[in-house]
Amino acid sequence: MSSWLFLSTAAGAALPSGTPMGDLLSMSMSLIMVLVLIVVLAFLVKKLNPNLANSDEFKVVRSLPLSTRERLMVIEIDNCQHLLGVTPHSINYLHKLETPLSEKELPALAERFGKLLNPQTNHTKKN
């Protein structure tokens, strides 16, 4: 990211900001930096997979990606855990778990993103 900043300031120093070419170059470098920042943040949110949609009645306990579009999910409804197979076209019920799995702890960064995106929800765990 610092290399982009260096290139932007170097390009601004090479061409005076009063010229149309200097303004255009500065604007395009700023646009590229914003687009790179959006892509990096989207990648982080997708990789960390914060389960932001959890509620007291329905909770995603674990999620295991099998491929880019298929995953196994353990959900908890009414204190019972169920294993689901999720694809883009269907959700299949696979099994009711006899011994419940413990809820996986979210990374600290994911918890902070969750608090920023939904500040009125209480994100404390209850066990």
Please describe the structure with a list of short key phrases separated by commas or semicolons.
127 residues; 3 helices; 41% helix; single chain; alpha+beta
Task: Provide a short characterization of the protein structure.
The chain has 127 residues and is an alpha+beta fold.
Overall pLDDT metric: 77
Radius of gyration: 22 Å
Main β-sheet: number of strands, strand sense, barrel status? 4 strands, antiparallel
> By helix and strand content, what is the structural category?
alpha+beta
Q: Helical segment tally?
A: 3
Q: What is the subunit arrangement here?
A: single chain
What portion of residues belong to β-strands? 15-25%
- Tally of DSSP β-strands: 4
Helix content: 40-55%
Order of helices and strands: HHEEEEH
Please give the order of strands in the largest beta sheet.
1-2-3-4
Which SSEs are present, and which pair or pack?
Blueprint: H1 2-14, H2 20-48, E1 58-65, E2 71-77, E3 80-86, E4 91-96, H3 108-117
Antiparallel strand pairs: 1-2, 2-3, 3-4
Task: Describe the fold and architecture.
There is one protein chain. The chain is α+β, with helices and mostly antiparallel strands and about 130 residues long. The protein contains three helices and four strands; from the N terminus they run ααββββα. β3 (about 80-85) and β4 form a beta hairpin. α1 (about 1-15) runs antiparallel to α2 (about 20-50). The radius of gyration is 22 Å and the shape is elongated. The two termini are about 40 Å apart.
